[in-house]
Amino acid sequence: MSRETTALVLREVNGPFTLETIKVNPLKPDEALVEIQATGLCHTDLSCATGALPAQTPAVFGHEGGGVVVETGAEVDEASVGDKVLLSYAFCNNCKQCTSGRAPYCDLMMQLNFGGVRADGTSGLALGDGAPLRAHFFGQSSFSRLAVVHRKSLVKVPQDTPLELFAPLGCGLQTGAGSILNTLNVQEGSTVAIFGVGSVGLSAVMAARIRKAKEIIAVDIQPSRLELARELGATKTINSTEVDDVLQEIRKICPPSGVDYALDCSGIIKVIETMVDSLAPCGRACSAGAPAPGKRASIDVFSHLVMGKEYVGCHQGGSIAKEMIPYLIEQHNQQKYPLEKIIKTYDINDFDRAIKDAKDGVTIKAVLRWT
């Protein structure tokens, strides 16, 4: 028997979100029903909504949810009714990547997180008139007061966890931190440049400070974000609109060749190319910001070869959510990861303002509160 709930629905790509009454279909054995209390608003949600990333409509997005479990399918043992949970990406747990501890690179990553339907082609959500509704975004579609959640998206947290503070850990913030801690594996006393200091980049800045990097260089075009980056741990900042050559500025800070590690959170091709060029010999660079599919960056192969550089991609910062989320909560409790400085909370009825503020850069990390 289906239930009714309220959700933010996108009826067509590049159209407006609307708050609507929808139907929640019965759970499958590997799903849980979660009453959402808070949902982070991620750049990926907005990119899918505008068509910058592939998406089908009508749909419910949202993939940084936090809430309380109200029902579980027979196969779910990750959490029980009444547990508080934070929600992250879904994965199959059976493929070579999953069984090797690399769940962010699951063979079924695209199907489970961007497919819009279950493996059997059905959906856990429907429009108010019963018409099909694309859902299961990152295994959760948490722009809904009641979310049908894939079991592997569930991360149980203590009952005193403030969900509206920690909901964004499920994607953007664990991506930034994980890029530093996992994919790049930044070492104490090293140098790192972070290109783009929105929520992902600022999370990376905090993680680099946790790792005790000697130089943490933040690069952006917005003075307010660069100022906050300094507050959160950046040792140097570069406003790329105020200098002739970002690469030369980085080399001045870290002579003669550049940094040990570099991270791009912008997804802008020209910035990615500069990031790779900013590496010192044997340096390692990573892309965490996503451009549109099909985009290619140019690499000076000879320089890359003789200097022993590395350039890799990462999804979710290579993070295993059930490990990374508790770790970041603990770092926050130790006052080493003050994510409250980048978050602004909005009532769900103010979703239009939250989206506008996020797009305009007024708010770094918007969180929609459902309670």
Automatic annotation (TrEMBL):
Which Pfam families does the record associate with it?
Answer: ADH_N, ADH_zinc_N
Q: Record's GO cellular component, any one?
A: cytosol
Domain of life from the UniProt record? Eukaryota
A molecular function annotated in GO for this UniProt entry is: zinc ion binding
- The identity of this protein, by name, is Enoyl reductase (ER) domain-containing protein
For this chain, the family text in UniProt reads:
Belongs to the zinc-containing alcohol dehydrogenase family.
The Enoyl reductase (ER) domain extends over 15-368
Q: Which UniProt keywords apply?
A: Metal-binding, NAD, Oxidoreductase, Zinc
Species for this entry = Talaromyces rugulosus
The family database entries (SUPFAM superfamilies) matched by this protein are listed as: GroES-like, NAD(P)-binding Rossmann-fold domains
Cofactor(s) needed, names only, are: Zn(2+)
What is a biological process (GO) this protein takes part in? formaldehyde catabolic process
**Does the UniProt entry include the keyword Nucleus?**
no
